[in-house]
Amino acid sequence: MIxxxxxxxxxxxxxxxxxxxxxxxxxxxxxxxxxxxxxTGWRLDAERVRTGALTATRVRIEVADDxxxxxxxxxxTMAARTGLTVAESxxxxxxxxxGALHGVPPAEVHLHELGGHDTLxxxxxCAAALRDLRVTRLHSAPLPLGGGxxxxxxxxxxxxxxxTLALLKGARVRGGEAGEAVTPTGAALLHAMRTxxxxxxxxxxxxxxxxxxxxxxxDRPNVTVAMLGEPVAMLGEPVAMLGEPVAGESTQxxxxxxxxxxxxxxxxxxxxRALAAGAADAWVTPAVMKKGRPAHVLHVLTSLELADDxxxxxxxxxxxxxxxxxxxxxxxxxxxxxxxxxxxxDVRMKHGPWGVKPEYDDLAALARAxxxxxxxxxxxxxxxx
Length: 385
Prior knowledge:
The chain is of the alpha+beta class.
């Protein structure tokens, strides 16, 4: 499933949690996840409230312990007990940016305003709600930055807070009115989900949730909007229908550039470098450009977090003056590897839902070592299963 966020007046952890609950996430599942952290002395409820002209869900957290300071490492350890990697990643990101800002290792960071019950409940709660809704991708419209100042344990700081800005690196943002529009917990959750920013992706809309903030605004509802939908494949069908069972879905970026002045040796070199740098795949297709010029199109498939680095690599190695970036949905089917023994060496056999094939690198190495034809070794590998 996909969630597209419209941070109409901003985004905080409790607003995101309220929007996800409003879109259909189970409050019991969220409470269970928070309980698994070992946190005590808290109560979590959700209520329908009126904000401006809209009705939305507002999260209510009551705590017996109002301490706002804890070591970041302690919160990370508590989140890890739930198995929610999004929560653990979000808290780790907070520790890393706070450590960088204050010049201490992340493991030694002591959180002040972010060390209370609310931070852990909001982050673990959102991660649990995303899991309950089976969300694999998060998209968002540009975020309002807000402005002005805020009083903290470190004195008066500008808004957005330095930690929030650090967590929003790579995000699309816009100007906003005075006040804190995006909180560090909200920014950390977007960071952990590797959020893609821009217009709403094509999807089949299933539900819409409105999460209310704590402030009342005089001229508008104070809400974050979450739209829940199923990803749509190129043929117009939900991705989950294109061959079951689906083992995983992920957002990937395709970098593409047309090249008419690069040799085949350079293209092969770029593919090798891109794969070594972490690209999921890289390939070249022939093309005919304007004026009938023969050319090649270089494609690099990558995760969002590596896209900028691989883009720089493509520019540096090819001399291209531009490329295209496209967001695609990668669907990975379940697979497992079995090893067979041929001529004293192991050959990996990759099994998928629709067939099995030997690992080329293993067969090629065996062919070089034995002098036997690759086709013959391929047949032997299948016979050995």
